[in-house]
Amino acid sequence: MSEEKLDRLIELNEKIVRQNDEIIDLLKQLNGIDKKSSCEEEVELPQKEDKTVVKDVSEHFSTTELSEGEVLFVANSQDNQVDIYRLGVKESDELKVSPPQIENEIRNNFDDINYEITLDNLTGSSLTSQFKTPLFVAIESLNNNEVIPSDICILNDESFVNLPDILRVAIENGAKTIYASIKNSMAVLQAPPMIMDYLTFYKNDDDLIEKLF
Asked: pLDDT tens-digit profile of 65-118?
């Protein structure tokens, strides 16, 4: 998809969000319905399914302290759960990876990478392969000596089949801004304005870095 088409898609998505807001305002004026309460009644995140349940709901995205080179993200784990992960990058003369099971995935996606990389599952015990974009952001955070706020959730650059569950987990655990690939924009065109308030779309890695820094 060309950059011109991506820009047009973002523009259309933002227009739909504005229209949804106008509709809610009109309903409020016509029916005397309080906007906040009506949104709370009508807008519900998808119910948890047995195979995509967060084990311990907590405020990870608002209470976790991050340093330069660290990011939080939500991803599908290898045991079919939706989990919250912290990825950390430190300077090193050679590539050091913990856990070692993800080293091949890193080498396949990054050339000549020499960092100490740590991936922690904060809500479970299983690994994930959906960390390419979070790792790229973590490296930029370290190189720029700038901390990524813990209430920011970075989603991998891919289309998520279970995007509602991904968003639910992030929002329930305190995320204020969720950076998602434009590839997911069509999946949320009909999403309520409350959900859209959390989302910021990026077109590619460079666009994401520009938005973050």
From this structure: 999 999 999 999 999 999 999 999 999 999 999 999 999 999 999 998 999 999
Please enumerate in sequence order all residues whose Cβ is within 8 A of that of 120, keeping only pairs 6 or more positions apart, or say none.
85, 86, 87, 88
Confidence at residue 20, expressed as pLDDT on a 0 to 100 scale: 54
- 111 phi/psi in degrees, rounded to 5: -95, 140
In this predicted structure, the answer to whether residue 208 has a pLDDT above a threshold of 90 is yes
Record the pTM. Answer: 0.75
> In the sheet where 177-181 sits, what is the strand order?
96-98, 115-121, 82-91, 70-76, 152-154, 177-181, 199-202
Domains annotated on the chain, with CATH = 3-212 (3.30.230.10)
CA Rg value for the chain: 18
